Write the structure tokens for this entry.
Amino acid sequence: MNRITWIDYYKAISILLVVISHSHCFNFLYLWTCSFIMQAFFFESGFWLKSSGSISVRELASEVHRKFKRLMVPCYLWAIIFASFSIPSLTRIIYGSYPMLKAAHSYASPLWFLPVLFITIVLFFFCRFIFQKSFSIPIKLCTACCAFLVAGFLPKVEIGYPFGINVSIAAFGFLLMGNICFPYLQQIRRFLDGKENKLKICLLLVGTVVLGVGSYLLCRLNSQYVDHVLMGNAQYGNYWLFLIVSPIGILFTIALAFLLDLLPQGPIHSCMNYIGQNTFLNYVLNKPIIAGVKSVLEIIPVSIFIEQIIIIIAVLMVSCAVNELIKRYAPVLLGLYRQ
């Protein structure tokens, strides 16, 4: 299947925002990116899920098994690598919630995304199995609304729910919205390639700025209820504001990806393509790499802006180098398996 370049750019922009968020260099960027960036990944995950046609019990079981190998096996392996190998750590890792993964080791805390994504995709296939050929857009919309409502009223548990099930329900809503919106986003992208391209780029640029500023102002409003949004821990602040900020931030990221895709091709496009196609290790390794860079920069002080640039470059370079080694010698750590 041919890759869709704007989606690679979308994923690359998203992972860069995750690195900026985890680096804690600028508090306003940390507050802003936390308000929507993980939702953007769940939204994109819905692009690729087929919802037409019927699905049998055997096909459902096969999809669950395939996704377990793709997501949960690397999650457990990386968590064991980061954490001490002990019964308490293994128990926390198997439980799979954000608080328990963090208790196993702080570097393992970002791995909460993988069990949540696994449960979210399982929910999608289960809905396909229940509705079969009638899993239409109206049913998806109703299901997404129900998921958002249920997630908003679930009680908070200190150690989190197993596999982050409570977070998965909210994430399921974003995944369904991505699944619904994908064909329309493709139509918009094709429309931008038509006549009066420069005018469309100008309008898109204005829209991007409006979406970025709007999402930032709303996340500042939400900061009255919570220090920062942390989706993995079901830390939403005002939940209804969270549901408003998230799609605005997602649209901002999509608009940036469209802009990049419309610009003349250059080296930056090749870099962003590669990053977008290899986000997994950038996500898994960015915390330890950031910690290592920060410890070095304590000895060699630089301005906060230069520190942010160094961190981004270091995360990308180290992650990409390790990614190529793992692809060759230990692909299972990426959820990949040799035939």
In short: The mean pLDDT is 93. Residues 18-265 form one domain.
